[in-house]
Amino acid sequence: MSRSEDRRSYALRIGVVSVRVETALRRLRRDHLRLYEAFRTRRVDPHAVAVTVRRAWPTICSRPRYEIVVDGRIQFGPTRYEEVLPYMEWAINWEVPRTLPRFLHLHAGSMEIDGRGVILPGDSGSGKSTLTVGLIARGWRYLCDEFALIDADTLRVHPYPRAICVKRPSFDALESLGVRVPPQPSYVKGRKGQVAFVDPMTIRPGAVGAAAPVRYVIFPNHRAGADPALQPISRAEAAFDLHRVCFNLFGCQRPGLDVLSGMIRGAQCYRLTAGEIGATCDLLERLVHDRAVRPALSA
Prior knowledge:
Layout: E1 5-14, E2 17-25, H1 26-36, E3 40-41, E4 49-56, E5 65-70, E6 73-76, H2 84-99, E7 103-113, E8 116-121, H3 128-137, E9 141-144, E10 147-151, E11 156-158, E12 164-167, H4 171-176, E13 187-189, E14 193-198, E15 212-222, E16 229-232, H5 235-243, H6 256-264, E17 268-274, H7 277-289, E18 297-298
Helix pairs in contact: 3-7, 5-6
């Protein structure tokens, strides 16, 4: 072990998700805790996601690399430090559904506004993380940019306020909203290229929300230069699409389809064509503050 390394571990409680980190890399501890210091806890949850990050020193036939180990299994082996934190976050996310079977886990952004839950399901590239940051700046409260965690008993969406991962093409759009994208350190995440992590609590005070019943399900699809528009869809159509972005449809403690149908029963459902971030946020503000809105909307 080099003099620049000192083995340490720490525990985090990020909303409903518990994480235990062990690493000898001082720089990684510093960078990770810069994002999560507010969630640090002395209590170690025996069911926490356990992640270890270490250097793997090269042999004659191998390159130097890092190893990201989750619950005893090597999940990723990045070769550059700039890749370590993004892959560490990715590895933790893959383990969350296994450690929290009482929740149905959807690949979606999730927000809370005036006690009402909003979920934004979408694949990578749909614009949900950028939209999430824009809405936080408007006063919406953050739950997560990657998960909608639906309690199988209460059907409420719960917070997992992880740092928001934004891609390089979104940096200018966020700066236009007054959201500062950290210039350093710069990270790289696979095919996404350069990314940055935004602590939601640096966007504005009180940015993190509380568990709430789901009242809106909105499927975003970003199209550069498009006029933002909302198209209502049926709950049945929304439920069909949601089951395809569910991480644990058959691993939830209650039948996943029952949880989905119960959750969506009280929700309005839309497809969103997302264009310029400011105009798109304006459109969603109109939706949630005008409860009489039902027909198709455009900016």
